[in-house]
């Protein structure tokens, strides 16, 4: 397979013309259930959007990064905080709890040279900031974005369109 030149323009249309949700309508129930589960108020919606933005950055997907950047802007987040998500480790804009969530999503999505991705030490650090329900919600939020990563990478919905209308 030949690689695309880095200077080649990227098409502004989805790779997969058909909307996967229309082809497999049962996915709407799964999506709604995940959104409802992460909206249980045990973790601020902003924190969930921060970790889901970081997930989009890690997998290198423009659709997800634009989507979650938009959610954060609509929530009133500053451009400094949004921009600094990619380099959160040395940015002064995040709380300890947000840093724990960002570290957790990175551990889940990135291979570890040291074996287990989520170490006992990381788990203990995250658990210092989140009670069991909130920690379970963080796990579901990471699962939620992971549910959509294959759709975003394979079908390539159009960046900047609503998550309910990416194929229009």
**Rg (CA only):** 17 Å
Number of strands: 0
Class from secondary-structure proportions: mainly alpha
String of helices and strands: HHHHHHHH
Mean pLDDT: 89
Largest sheet: none
The termini sit apart by 29 Å
Percent range for helical residues?
55-70%
Rough shape? globular
Number of helices: 8
Low-confidence stretches: none
Query: Beta-strand level of the residues, as a percent range?
Result: under 5%
Describe the oligomeric state of these chains in a short phrase: single chain
Overview of the structural elements:
The chain is mostly helical and 168 residues long. 58% of the residues lie in helices and 0% in strands. It has helices spanning 20-23, 27-38, 45-59, 62-74, 79-84, 96-109, 120-129, 132-154. The chain is globular. It starts with 19 loop residues before the first helix and ends in a 14-residue tail after the last helix. 25% of the residues are buried.
Which labels suit this protein?
168 residues, mainly alpha
Write the layout of secondary structure elements.
Layout: H1 20-23, H2 27-38, H3 45-59, H4 62-74, H5 79-84, H6 96-109, H7 120-129, H8 132-154
Helix pairs in contact: 2-8, 3-4, 3-6, 3-8, 6-7
In short:
Helices cover 58% and strands 0% of the residues. It is mainly α and 168 residues long.
């Amino acid at each position: 397979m030949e690689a695309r030149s880095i200077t080649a323009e990227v098409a502004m249309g989805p790779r997969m013309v058909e909307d996967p949700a229309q082809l497999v309508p049962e996915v709407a129930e799964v999506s709604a259930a995940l959104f409802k589960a992460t909206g249980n108020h045990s973790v601020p919606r902003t924190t969930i959007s921060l970790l889901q933005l970081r997930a989009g950055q890690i997998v290198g997907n423009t659709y997800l990064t634009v989507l979650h950047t938009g959610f954060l802007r609509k929530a009133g987040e500053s451009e400094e905080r949004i921009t600094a998500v990619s380099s959160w480790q040395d940015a002064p804009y995040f709380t300890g709890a947000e840093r724990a969530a960002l570290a957790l999503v990175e551990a889940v999505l990135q291979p570890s040279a040291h074996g287990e991705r989520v170490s006992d030490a990381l788990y203990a650090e995250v658990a210092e900031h989140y009670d069991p329900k909130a920690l379970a919600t963080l796990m579901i939020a990471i699962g939620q974005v992971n549910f959509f990563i294959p759709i975003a990478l394979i079908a390539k919905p159009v960046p900047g369109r609503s998550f309910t209308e990416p194929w229009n």
